[in-house]
Structures are given as C-alpha cells and as structure tokens.
What we know:
alpha/beta; seven-stranded parallel beta sheet; three-stranded mixed beta sheet; 21% strand
Amino acid sequence: MKHVNVALFVVHKGCPHTCSFCNQRSITGVSHELEPGDVHKAVETAVASLDAGAAAAGEIAFFGGSFTMIEREYMISLLEAAHKYVREGLFKGIRISTRPDGINGEICDILEKYGVSAVELGAQSMDNRVLELNERGHTAEQVEAAFDLLRSRGFETGLQMMTGLYGSSDESDMETALKIRDMRPDTVRIYPTVVLKNTKLDALMQSGEFVPKGIEETVELCARIIPLFNEAGIRIIRVGLHSGGNVEDERTGGAYHPALRELCDGRIYLDAALRELDGRPAGKYSLAVAKGCVSKMTGQKKKNLFHLKDLGYECNVFQDDELNEYEVRVR
C-alpha cells in the first residue's frame, strides 16, 4: 500500500506570542492564508498519484502557527475539508501541531469530531527559565498537563523540542530530553535553533548577547539525545528544519544543515565504533552494523572511516542482520 502524506501550512495563525526564534514565513516559504479550497487541491493532487483502488494510508497534516488557537470557524472549515478524505478511507487521519496552552477538553471534542488522530505539542524546552527568556508564554507544567489530556483522550501524541535556545545549555537541553523521554510520547521532533532574520534571537545575536551553537557542537549534543529516544522506543520524526522554504536565505546563524539527521547518525556510529575499538592495537578491523546502516557507519563522504584511519584503525564496514540500530561490533 502506497504511503502518502499531505502537509499543509497555516502560517503564524493563532499564536498569542511571538517567540524569540519564530519567523514562520521563512520556515515554511508560505505567506498566503490557507483556505479549504487549498486543502482539497493538495489532497486531490496526492490522491491522483495513487494507483486505482489504492488507499493512501497516510495523514493530512496541518503545521505552522498554532492550529487549535486560530479563529474557531476557520479551524473547523479546514478540518471539514480534510475530514472528507478520512471518511472516504483515503487517509487514516489528520495530524496537527499546536501549543500546549491551546489544548483543553472542548478542543479535544472538536478534534475527535473531525478525525484528528495525532497532535504534536511544541514544548521546545522543559526548563521554565528558558521558556520565559524565549517568550514562549507557557510553562513546562502546561506541557505536561496538555500531554496528559491528549493521552487520556486517545490521541497519538508527539512532542517537539529545541536545542540551543537563548539561555539554554547542553545540560538543560539534556534535561529536557530526559523529561520528554520519561513522558513517553509516541513521536518527537528535535529542532536545533536556527536564527532567522527579523526575530528576537537575531537581534540578540547581533548585539553579542546570544551566541548560537554551530553544526559541530549541535551534532555532538544531538548524538547524545537521539539514542535516549531510540532506546525508549520513541519514534523520531525529524531532526532539524526541513530544507526549502526561505530558510537558506533568511538564516543568519545557528545549526542548519539539510542533512542534519545524517550527520547526527554518523556521529552516533563513530562514537560507538570508538568505544568498541578502545584499547585495541592499531590495525585493520571489520565493523559490523545493522541492516541498512552501513552508510551511517562510514559517515558522510566517508568522514568516519577517515577519522578512524587517522587514529590507526583501518576499517571496513559490513552488514549484520542480527544487530540493532546504532550497535557496532568489531570482527
């Protein structure tokens, strides 16, 4: 069965705050207001790509802004447009993203009525000091309360976190990751901070008050965070902002790379290989990794193999179907 998702962006709608990092136009590349007709057009285009009689088995997703905090009639008009295709069995459900303070019992009733199956909350941090400094307008306790309510109502629930925010540290980011892991969401997204034009973070960076983390230190941190979620069985949907939109043109600093997840996976495998090779004499070795993970072990442009060679370990990599992801064994 072909898996087709349709992503739709509701640009900076419903947000009661302008967070320090936010410029939705730059992130999405969209500036016009989404209308029900746009929903029908996007979904019909996706359905047309399917073979006759096939079901998409995917989701219609509304991202950007804070979906449950937009004007009520407008929100329902978008949901009605998408729900038509869920009722017809072409899609399994609707996914939305919103703020923790945009969830209550009444909202859950509406979401259930119109076929919403998954809700992602922009937690960003579980440190109240970091949330306040970045003008989020909600607390970590509100994240937990919204999450618990969604779970009790049967929604698939995701949490989104950011690393490298103004006022944060590696320690506070790790603490956020640990708290999110312990909440056991179905999914997570990890968004290292990218500084965009016309944001508070850009002004803070220009003044020297905020120094954003670069790619290397971000990869190092995320290589510690990703295994936490992986080992807990929490699906990581995304690491880093999507390429496209206006991010490349609007970015003024921070950790943006179109293949950030690939870099992080490569670092995780390099660290695992170094642990396995620790104490062994220089020489030639074979490294076994899980199915489909050979390229992750070799690293982007064979970066990991060159690094190991510089340390005296000349390695080749092969696949072992009995190993799990991120496991490395020396043969």
